[in-house]
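Problem statement: downstream parser choked on a complex file, so we are re-checking the raw output for the zinc ion run. The parser issue turned out to be on our end (a line-ending mismatch), but while we're here, posting the original submission so the record is complete.
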Amino acid sequence: MSKQRIAELIDKKAGVFAALNDTIWDCAEIRFGLKGSADALCAVLEGEGFRIERGVAGMAHAFIASWGAGAPEIGILGEYDALPGLSQHAGVPEKRPLVDGGNGHGCGHSALGAGSAAAAVGIKEYMQESGLPGTVKYYGCPAEESGSGKAYLARAGVFTGLDAALTWHPMMENSVWTMSSLANYQIFFSFKGRSAHAAVAPENGRSALDAAELMNVGVNYLREHIIQEARIHYAYTDVGGGLPNVVQPSAELLYFIRAPKPAQVRSIFERVVDIAKGAALMTGTTMSLRWDSAAANYLVNNTLGKAMHANMSALGPVVWTEEELAFARSFQATLDEGVRNSIPATVARYFPGVDQAVLKAMADKPMLDGIVPYRETDQVLPGSTDVGDVSWQVPTTQVFTACYPQGTVSHSWQLTACGKSSLVHKGLIQAAKIIAFTAADILEDPGLVARAKAEYQQRLGGESYSCPIPPEVNPEQ
Ligand SMILES: [Zn+2]
């Protein structure tokens, strides 16, 4: 009965959180510059009686909204950053930017922020009605896509004292995240040389572009001598100019270095720095490096994950209207053929052992409406998230709810375009209920917290969190 009451409380305010999603979607702000989005979230949470602490950990638009007092303390994580270049008209099934080259919510973080706020308000109202003691804290976390806001929050110690951290992500399926992720460093390598006429006086030039190229060659040889699971990729952020007859006086590369464990990333990073120094020495240039961000690997917590999965299963999937399914189909029609053809294999992976005919019927639906079974795994996603940093400090789990048509690609215009639809509005309320139900389990069952903490300790294996970003590096610099 109690969970039904939580669902009712959240449903009653569904319109508020759909509107909040739409406001954040319209702001479409990136990295740390999230004033409009944070203002909107804080206004709703303050109106619901939460105490707001803004400007946390040196980030103007990071905030903590708290309600209640004492133990247990539950953290709910919200993100609200968009992506550059993904501006798109809402609801239009063809690529049509609102602003050419503008930002857009191509990862659904407008829904993430609003859905987590709905969860925080839902559990708060339930605690008010039932008299359950404890504290709910909504963490407004900037710069997930790039910048690692949560790593700075973790470094500042704001998650200390929490009994659990809960979050979600809008996705194409209903599941609980059970994989780890890679720890990640993001570093700029800058070379400075001397320009000269490349034909008339090449002996006077010292090419920073040569240095960058030699660094990449060196790193490409390094690949043979690092662990299989590591990933290194780079992009040129400065090529030193567009004229071949001017020796390039500057060049810059942004490197991402990833591996399953922070110590492994550290060791590969040190070897990459040596290669960069060698490239500078070879070319008579100078090298400097600048941190962009870093994130820890994600520590899974199956105890909390299973509790969350039980709540998702009890709630059942969202029921879509014919109109919503037609809307989803219109977006599926815009997908590349290869992507569309990959849907049955994805569905088969989610539902192992299920009859072929059933799988085919599921894959044919524009919205995947089953619930992916919980699967304990040692697998590591070859990507990274700054939720990893939180998971090193407190038992953490996250749920995914189906908010987009099957086959939708993350960080695409299609995903931005669906961002203000009822698909997303329903998906974010679904996630809010699952998070709030799990929060209620934590408040009502001390044994669950104890088991989650024991698993967390075991996964730490005697290590403790050390922020991968050096102490002298600050956000927003
Ligand atoms: Zn995302």
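For whoever reads this later: The pocket of zinc ion is lined by residues 107, 109, 169 (CB under 6 Å).
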